[in-house]
């Protein structure tokens, strides 16, 4: 990823969930494949040095389960996470507001959320001139489950603007 910037945002789409069937969307659990994906994401984030200082996690069951498995791989305490109905319901603008409200001492923030918001937020924040072209093309078309995008800037989260940060990479799990 090259130069590490002072602030990094990791936008993670939850791992693969069971089909809705008769369950309310908010109550959909992870599928077995999703459990494997989430564990691999945690290990991968740790291996890449992307250990968050804080996490914002959608209140949906599948995102909470994704976080629990990712957190185990990261070896971070559960207390760094804030469960949020606002992340579950967020569009790009409201998710960006949540990111901007992150306390100044947080240097690396992980958001565990949903499509299309996570990829659209990455695409909205990305500076096309400074971002990885392949990563930008991927977030513009949407990302599969358990995929994360890494955005970075020397500016604190409160100062992040549309088209103002570098999209460094997008990482997807190996196909099952």
Automatic annotation (TrEMBL):
TM annotation in the entry: none
Entries under PANTHER family matching the protein: OS09G0287300 PROTEIN
Official protein name in the record: Histidine phosphatase family protein
Organism the protein comes from: Cellulomonas denverensis
Pfam families listed in its UniProt record: His_Phos_1
């Amino acid at each position: 990823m090259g130069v590490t910037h002072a602030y990094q945002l990791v936008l993670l789409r939850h791992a693969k969930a069971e089909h809705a069937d008769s369950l309310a969307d908010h109550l959909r659990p992870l599928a077995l494949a999703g459990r494997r994906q989430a564990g691999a994401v945690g290990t991968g984030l740790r291996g890449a040095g992307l250990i968050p200082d804080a996490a914002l996690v959608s209140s949906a069951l599948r995102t909470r389960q994704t976080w629990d498995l990712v957190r185990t791989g990261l070896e971070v305490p559960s207390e760094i996470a804030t469960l949020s109905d606002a992340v579950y319901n967020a569009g790009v603008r409201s998710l960006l507001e949540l990111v901007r409200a992150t306390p100044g001492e947080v240097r690396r923030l992980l958001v565990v959320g949903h499509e299309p918001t996570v990829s659209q937020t990455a695409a909205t924040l990305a500076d096309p001139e400074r971002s990885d072209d392949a990563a930008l093309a991927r977030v513009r078309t949407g990302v599969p489950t358990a995929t994360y995008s890494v955005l970075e800037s020397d500016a604190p989260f409160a100062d992040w603007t549309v088209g103002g940060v570098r999209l460094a990479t997008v990482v997807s799990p190996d196909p099952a």
